[in-house]
UniProtKB/TrEMBL annotation:
Family the entry assigns: Belongs to the PPR family. P subfamily.
Keyword Repeat: yes
Source species taxonomy: Eukaryota, Viridiplantae, Streptophyta, Embryophyta, Tracheophyta
Signal peptide bounds: none
Keywords from the UniProt entry: Repeat
PPR repeat boundaries on the chain: 1-32, 33-67, 68-102, 103-137, 138-172, 173-207
Pfam families documented for this protein: PPR, PPR_1, PPR_2
TM region positions: none
InterPro entries given in the database record: Mito_RNA-Proc/Resp, PPR_rpt, TPR-like_helical_dom_sf
Coiled coil (residue ranges): none
Name the record gives this protein: Putative tetratricopeptide-like helical domain-containing protein
């Protein structure tokens, strides 16, 4: 009963209240179990109280309550998000010392941590280690590396991973496509980016306005390019006006160039993001 309530409170980020209930539970002579501790540790991690989370982690071990893979995953992820990679590695090593097989979640979190501190090659090493330890990749692990390669302008490496995914029966999601399309556009590979837009559509992932943000950004730098490429965009529910570049204002450019056609709520939300994207494009756009 106590554990269920504590778990729900932690999920709702009422962690301090959950911790008070934990003390009440112990005072009542009811021993917390691995689920109780994991819920509290994860709750403290979510609200950024890593010292409290680590204190509970040490306490449960001192009470001979063995952490499970979920306990470790929460700590690894939290430390990585704070850029505390060494602490995350220590938790992962403790996990292995206890003969718990680390899973794709822990390794993906560690990869993401290295990426957050721009250690792309260390992240790549973790990615390769997963294969050596016969861990199954998932779309998130690929997305993390593809995103980092694109950020570091290593687009060829990102493309290799993207093309490798189907060979391992892992299929790109919207995040994968958007990340790679953005990277391709920023590296001047517009034609390949447009091929991926078509591929998205073929795979049942219809491109939306967010998909086109980096493409519009590139095309804005070449007004003739926008007009000649306008036929590629109506699948998103957009069309181009011949009066596209009558104004130097980028916001006016958006309003004049793109004419919404039966845009739903999600598309309207996406359109607002596109306006924001255009607002930060170079002045000549």
């Amino acid at each position: 009963m106590y554990t269920t309530v504590i778990d729900n409170m932690c999920k709702d980020t009422f962690v301090n209240d959950a911790f008070d209930l934990y003390y009440e539970m112990v005072a009542s002579g009811i021993s917390p179990n691995v689920v109780t501790y994991t819920a509290l540790i994860d709750g403290f991690c979510v609200v950024g109280k890593l010292e409290e989370a680590l204190g509970l982690f040490k306490k449960m071990i001192s009470e001979n309550i063995n952490p499970n893979v979920y306990t470790f995953n929460g700590l690894v992820d939290a430390f990585c998000k704070e850029g505390k990679i060494e602490e995350a590695k220590n938790v992962l090593n403790t996990m292995m010392e206890k003969d718990l097989k680390s899973d794709v979640v822990a390794y993906s979190s560690l990869m993401n941590g290295y990426c957050l501190v721009n250690e792309v090659f260390k992240a790549q090493s973790i990615f390769k280690t997963m294969a050596e330890r016969e861990l199954s990749y998932d779309v998130r692990s690929y997305n993390i590396m593809i995103n980092e390669f694109c950020k570091m302008k290593m687009v060829d490496e990102a493309i290799k991973l993207f093309e490798e995914m189907p060979l391992k029966q892992i299929f790109p999601d919207v995040v994968t496509y958007h990340t790679l399309i953005d990277g391709l556009c920023k590296s001047g590979r517009l034609s390949y980016a447009m091929e991926l837009v078509d591929e998205m559509d073929d795979r049942g992932e219809p491109p939306n306005i967010i998909t086109y943000c980096p493409i519009v950004d590139v095309l804005c730098k070449n007004h003739d390019g926008v007009l000649s490429s306008g036929k590629s965009l109506p699948s998103c529910g957009l069309s181009f006006s011949n009066k596209a570049f009558s104004s130097s204002s980028k916001l006016s450019l958006f309003l004049n160039v793109i004419e919404p056609k039966e845009l739903g709520t999600k598309a309207i939300e996406s359109a607002s993001l596109l306006v924001l994207a255009l607002a930060f494009t170079p002045a000549e756009c």
